[in-house]
Amino acid sequence: MTFSTIEKVTADQQVAQLGASDLLAAGRRVIRREAEALLILADHLGPSFAQAADLIMAAQGRVIVSGMGKSGHVARKIAATLASTGTPAHFVHPGEASHGDLGMLTKGDVALALSNSGETVELADIIAHTRRFGIPLIAVASRADSTLVRQADVAILLPDAPEACETGIVPTTSTTMMLALGDALAIALMEHRAFTPEHFRLFHPGGKLGAKLLKVRDLMHSDLPLIDAASPMTEALLVISQKGFGVVGVTEAGALVGIITDGDLRRHMDGLLLLDAGAVMTKAPRTVAPDALAEVALAAMNDRKITCLFAVDPAKPLQPVGIVHIHDCLRAGVI
Question: Are residues 281 and 162 in the same domain?
Answer without folding.
Answer: no
